[in-house]
Amino acid sequence: MSSNMKTSSLVAALASAATVAAHGHVSNIVINGVSYQGYDPTSMPYQQDPPAVVGWTAADTDNGFVAPSSFGDPDIICHKSATPGGAHVEVAAGDSISIQWNTWPESHKGPMIDYLAACSGDCEDADKTALEFFKIDGAGYDAATSTWASDVLVANNNSWLVQIPSNIAPGNYVLRHETIALHSAGQADGAQAYPQCFNLAVTGSGTDVPAGVLGTALYKEDDAGIIVDIYNGLTEYTVPGPALIDGAVSSVAQATSAITASGTATVGAGSGSGATSAAPTSAGEATSQASPTSAQPTTAQPTTAQPTTAQPTTAQPTTAAPSTLLTSTRAPTTSAVPAPTGGVSAAALYGQCGGKNWTGATSCAEGTCKVQNPYYSQCINA
């Protein structure tokens, strides 16, 4: 293929990727003020020599999701056709990691869930189908305030804090971070899972090696918390997946994190507690996570790192993390699926295109507008 043809293909691919605005992906993670680049599925597949990053690669170039019908497929582990990230970063047990999404639609409400899985060697060489995940974080719905964990994510500049339990043994781990969008979950196969994975080298003096569950066995299509009508007086919600391990906190106090430096993840050949991350690229002292404004369960605070200078970002308003309700859900409902017409603009693939009180676009730039329930219609592939 000529260089001109390659350039044209790249421009077309990037133009297509630029239209994907309905969903998101994790752009970076922040540890003690130091930011590490994640995997960008909308641009890195088109780069000739993409960098090795802490995030796993995945084929979700449309920022798409994994449906419940694929919960038994390897795609649910770390997203579609995922392969291990080429690098890892070090974090101390007891510290918190701020996971930064590039964007997230407020309409895509659901839980925030985090798992760890120990790697038998370097996580860069891990067999995802053999990883056994244990849950370290699970926040769902607070009926008292009608607040979803995803609402807290959005309120905190699309970021989520998760604490690495202080009692786990040092070593190499895959962090599996996930939100499950429930706007269409009132019908079978309507929930949308967005798993994201990262390679960590955990240090510390803990001794616990929790038992885990294969990624393909975390959820079932008909689990409570997977089929649920979130629009009609929901009072209870079950966060799907196994129970939290001993020593984990349901959800730490949520807040944004000031970024004071950029770091480079260590490429390959991690060796558990002995593996280290490359030094941040600029001088100055890193800050720990910002303090939240509302009361939360007591948790260990992140330690302070010592990277070199950079301009800190402005912290966003803080929001309390919702409680997790582990109870039953109502039976699923279904709705007709005629495609709405009209509208002054077109919604992107997977974007909202209708529903009760919806005032935005009612046609689709790509795909077909289908009614998921009376409150939500979505552009999906025909």
Automatic annotation (TrEMBL):
Localization per Swiss-Prot or TrEMBL: Secreted
Matches recorded under InterPro entries: AA9 (IPR049892), AA9_LPMO (IPR005103), CBD (IPR000254), CBD_sf (IPR035971)
Protein name per UniProt: lytic cellulose monooxygenase (C4-dehydrogenating)
Record field: compositional bias (Low complexity): 266-329
Principal subcellular localization: secreted
Organism of provenance: Diatrype stigma
Domain CBM1 positions: 345-380
Catalytic activity: [(1->4)-beta-D-glucosyl]n+m + reduced acceptor + O2 = 4-dehydro-beta-D-glucosyl-[(1->4)-beta-D-glucosyl]n-1 + [(1->4)-beta-D-glucosyl]m + acceptor + H2O
Entry annotated with the keyword Ribonucleoprotein: no
Annotated EC: 1.14.99.56
One term of GO molecular function: cellulose binding
Signal peptide from the UniProt entry: 1-22
This protein's UniProt keywords: Carbohydrate metabolism, Cellulose degradation, Copper, Disulfide bond, Hydrolase, Metal-binding, Monooxygenase, Oxidoreductase, Polysaccharide degradation, Secreted, Signal
Gene name linked to the record: CEL61A
Pfam families registered for this protein in UniProt: AA9, CBM_1
Cofactor dependence: Cu(2+)
Gene3D superfamilies membership: 2.70.50.70
Cross-referenced SMART domains: fCBD
Protein family: Belongs to the polysaccharide monooxygenase AA9 family.
Coiled coil: none
Principal EC category: oxidoreductase
Region entry Disordered, spans: 266-340
Top-rank taxon, per record: Eukaryota
One BP term from GO: cellulose catabolic process
